Amino acid sequence: MLLGLLQSLLLITLSRHNLIGSLLAIETILILSYSIAARLGSASNMTEATGLLILAVSIGAIEAAIGLAISAVYRNIRMNLNLSMQTLLVAKPMKTPDNHL
């Protein structure tokens, strides 16, 4: 268990600029710890395993929320850029030839 915690700290340190990557590393290590504790099978290990699983699920929810927020911001920026381009195109009147009858 201590080795797993050290590995998770190492992964977080290596990917500290990548929030979702470090959350994935923590989640993976928690799920591995859960499976190890579940194999040992004692009541205290199962309580710890259940807590680890709940923590892993909540970290997964945080990852999903971050992903949704990033996609919403990206979609909003794209929509604003498209609207700006349409405004520029509509605001410029079309030039008509001077010699048309």
UniProtKB/TrEMBL annotation:
Keywords: Membrane, Transmembrane, Transmembrane helix
Transmembrane segments: 49-74
Name of the protein: NADH dehydrogenase subunit 4L
Species annotation: Rhodosorus marinus
Lineage: Eukaryota, Rhodophyta, Stylonematophyceae, Stylonematales, Stylonemataceae
